[in-house]
UniProtKB/TrEMBL annotation:
Protein name: Transposase-like zinc ribbon protein
InterPro entries hit by this protein: IS1016-like_transposase (IPR053164), Tnp_ISXO2-like (IPR024445), Transposase_Zn_ribbon (IPR024442)
Organismal lineage: Bacteria, Pseudomonadati, Bacteroidota, Cytophagia, Cytophagales
PANTHER family: DDE_TNP_IS1595 DOMAIN-CONTAINING PROTEIN, SI:DKEY-17M8.2
Species name: Arcicella aurantiaca
Domain ISXO2-like transposase: from-to ranges: 122-305
Length: 349
């Protein structure tokens, strides 16, 4: 779904409501309270009256969107903008595009992220496993690599400050005084960054999870859950946490101290996925807290897994119509495929 199609097909709230009702009930609406089909015609406030239980309900009653105060048309706009942005969009951009407050846009985006699932994922074949670390680099005043050149640079800059300082006010000049050299900040393991473990099938889907401890005891349950181990081979780097996988399944090690690729043996697919995440966070979100990082990871996984299909929008709509106590991750992938149409079900069969 693109913006042109959205404006052509859903120009009024009535058309949007009809679409949501068709997704949820098909041709015949039913009471959201008792399931009866003995209901009145839809009123102007988009609600029905059930003659069996005498309750009133709308298409959002008993769904993930039950308590929303926004129009369904705004939700469709949000679904379209978010699903079409490969690396995401900021809440401020969403605010400007659909005309809501920043707090509302931020809340909407996090709600949409809970819809971003294809159900259960099972990987097989050539499987790449790797971990990455997400978070900003520790701020440092000066890099140690400049220590031999600093005296000359300071002499030049001090002269400029002395000459121009009376006419111009520089932003907090004291902040630029030398406070001692710091070594380059460490990267990856051993830092305070948040670890994320990812598993990707070559030319297939990916799963990723935030994991506080990246050792064998924590990575193994994830591999067992998502990988068809008898029919798969792992490609990993030389990290010691993967060594014990040799005893339970086939594994090939690519030692990155010696090479990155050899005759198709590499971890480039998972590395490319990490690049998408980090560019999305740096370019759109700038920073992500540990509390909400799993939601952002789910978003990037969902978009990566749906990159070959054009039904990402429909999947979001379908998941939004699930009961509020029903987590979209509990939806079986076959159920979604049947609901979304024959084209994708045939591809994934």
């Amino acid at each position: 779904m693109n913006l042109y199609q959205l404006s052509e097909n859903f120009s009024t709230e009535i058309e949007v409501t009809d679409y949501f009702e068709n997704v949820r009930w098909g041709k015949k609406p039913r009471c959201s309270h008792c399931g009866s089909d003995k209901i009145s015609k839809r009123y102007t406030d988009f609600r029905y009256h059930c003659t069996t239980c005498r309750g009133r309900f709308s298409v959002t009653t008993g769904t993930q969107l039950e308590n929303t105060n926004l129009s369904l048309r705004k939700w469709l706009m949000a679904f379209t903008l978010i699903s079409n942005a490969k690396k995401g969009i900021s809440a401020l951009q969403l605010k400007r595009d659909i005309g809501v407050s920043y707090q509302t846009a931020w809340s909407m985006y996090h709600t949409v992220r809970t819809f971003m699932t294809d159900g259960s994922v099972k990987l097989s074949g050539v499987i790449e496993v790797d971990e990455t670390y997400i978070g900003g680099n520790p701020r440092k005043y000066q890099s140690a690599k400049f220590k031999d050149k600093e005296p000359f640079a300071h002499e030049y800059l001090d002269k400029k400050i002395e000459k121009l300082g009376k006419k111009y006010t520089f932003e907090n000049p004291d902040a630029y005084k030398k406070k001692g050299l710091l070594e380059d900040a460490p990267r990856g393991r051993g830092t305070d960054k948040t670890p994320v473990v990812g598993i990707v099938q070559r030319s297939g889907n990916v799963v990723a999870e935030v994991m506080k401890i990246t050792d064998f005891a924590h990575i193994r349950p994830m591999v067992e859950q998502y990988v068809n181990m008898p029919d798969s081979v792992l490609l990993t780097d030389a990290y010691s946490a993967y060594t014990r996988f040799d005893a339970i399944m086939e594994r090939i090690v690519i030692d990155h101290d010696k090479m990155y690729s050899y005759k198709g043996l590499n971890t480039n697919s998972i590395e490319s996925f990490w690049a998408i995440i980090k560019r999305g966070i740096m370019g759109q979100y700038h920073s992500v807290s540990d509390k909400y990082l799993p939601n952002y990871i789910d978003e990037f996984c969902f978009k990566y897994n749906n990159r070959k299909y054009d039904d990402m929008f429909e999947t979001l709509v379908f998941n939004s119509m699930l009961p509020p106590d029903f987590t979209p991750k509990d939806v079986d992938s076959k159920m979604i495929n049947v609901r979304m149409g024959k084209k994708r079900a045939k591809v994934l069969a």
